[in-house]
Amino acid sequence: MSDCCSSSSTKQICPECGSSCKSVDMPTLYHQVRFPENQSIVIDSYYFCPAKTCPIAYFANAGNTIPKQHLRNYQAIQNDELCYCFDIDAEQYLSALKDRRAEPIKAFVMQRTKAGECACEIRNPSGQCCLANFKNLETGQNN
Q1: Domain ranges in the chain?
Q2: pLDDT of 78-118, one tens digit each?
């Protein structure tokens, strides 16, 4: 079973927008940051800023920052990607929720994750498991 959903991240506040940000591992940065910018990443403890409007993607304890525009998934972030592993965006899932056909989508992602076939650690810019995104979106719809 994939261990992408068992996270032990630390948190910091984004120096640009003040959002609460979770730590990411270095492999996430190397996969997310486009070439040639990924060649100059300084090894440090980095955090991902989830705020869509914040220009900073990652920041480090030493003050290094990486802008969202340097990410491979910059457009997906702007388009509210829900699941980076299986290319599902929030609009698609919200539509499925409205039409009562969301359960098979979520079940598919859960099955693939359980089978170890997800790659959240490198595909998701946050380095976090995407399954929580489904629950967060569903909870937001019920309020």
Answers
A1: 9-78, 80-143
A2: 888 999 999 999 999 999 999 999 999 999 999 999 999 99
SS (H, E, C) 53-88: CCCEEEEECCCCEEEHHHECCHHHHHCCEEECCCCE
Phi, psi of 92 (to 5 degrees): -60, -45
Residue 66, pLDDT above cutoff 70: yes
Which residue, chain included where needed, has tokens 């993607």? 57
Mean pLDDT of the chain: 90
- Fold of the CATH domain 9-78: N-terminal domain of TfIIb (2.20.25)
Res. 4: pLDDT tops 70: no
Q: 29, 141 in Cβ contact below 8 A?
A: no
Report how far Cα 105 is from the mean position of its chain's Cα atoms.
18
Give, for 98, the enclosing helix (H) or strand (E). Answer: helix 90-98
Answer whether 77's CB lies under 8 Å from 132's CB: no
Residue 82, class by beta-carbon neighbours within 10 Å (0-12 exposed, 13-18 middle, 19+ buried)? buried
